[in-house]
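The protein record minuted underneath.
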Amino acid sequence: MSRPARILRLTLVGLTLSIALVLIMLFALQRQMIYPGTGPDDGSWAAPPPGYQTVTLRTSDGLALNALYRAPEDDAKTLLFFHGNGDSALNSSISFEPVLARGQGALMVSYRGYAGNPGTPGEDGLYADGEAGLDFLRAQGIADSQIVVGGFSLGTGIASHVATKGDFAGLLLAAPFSALVDVAGEHFPFLPTGMIIRDRYLTRDRLTDSKAPLLIVHGEKDGIIPVAHGRRLAALRPDATFATFAAAGHNDIGHHSMETVRDWFQGL
């Protein structure tokens, strides 16, 4: 074999091994990347924000999860909300304080592995956590017709799943993805992410299974989940209200969309 041929062969072998190593690392570390917010108790359970109490959600696979609950008055609407992958139930309660009217309820779900909750996060597990939140509200005597399901970022994948479990008053998706695997493919276009990513969160495949009034809000400067994802989802539900915000990115979409979300929520 000539020297140039040997060099080419070694180069190809090295490139192949490098790609294989990247794929192995991505597969092994993907859940640490998808769920960076896991960690110990942040103190919110012992000292919940005003108007909230710490409650326990019982999942179908036997976990007891802490969550923050604000009971509704009379027949007021109740928000069932799922936070982003680096967020918390406490932050959700603070963010929605200007949105919820007096007497309206809220259940801010905290996932397994987050804020000291037991368990390890994964797609099926977070679906079970979401359903546990719904079960809790139903056990309080709150009808599905009085529940507004909502989520931000990763939480929109759980919200879109829970929204298929009943006839709800509304569905709020803030900075949603069409599917988590779609986002991964856009961030790593040179890798076969469709084969690697285990937690796929296929919102696009189930959004039409929910008939709840739908609001999608998205920042036009979102560099994590581009606004094109919101547009794709809105196209699947022509009856949806779709609002974009020119100055908003990803983590500040709540600030920019506050009035829009409040007006929509109060009009349900």
Remarks:
- The CA atoms of residues 131 and 162 lie 6 Å apart.
- The chain has one domain: 35-266.
